[in-house]
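Quick question, first post here. What does this chain look like in 3D?
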Amino acid sequence: MLTGFRNFIMKGNVVDLAVAVVMGAAFGAVVTSIVEGLLTPLIGLLFNAKGIEEMAWEGFKYGSVISSIISFVLIAAAIYFVVILPMNHMIERRNRRLGINPDVKEESAEDPQIALLTEIRDALNRTTR
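> Answer (accepted):
Ran it through. Tokens below.
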């Protein structure tokens, strides 16, 4: 029982996911710090407010919405430029090295069940004529 649990925990997917969650939380903290410490005060200065969070119009606190949108865009951009682009580049290099062309699809063998059903259909058509 414990061996199965150990094997499950040691699988690459579980370990990779755990590392991704920890790294994502740490990276989120860095981006939040940049947004709250640098960008929010700068944008607030442009609109004569203490920060984006303080911006409001007749009770509607639209500043917090703007702050959340800026944070989301920064996180998405950082993930794209720091993780996705390098990963795609590494995958392309690996595929070139191994001679794999992702644009060329391998011919898949016909499903044996479909072949059998086709034969049955053809046999039924011959007998009903």
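DSSP finds four helices and no strands in the chain.
Residues 91 and 122 are 46 Å apart (CA to CA).
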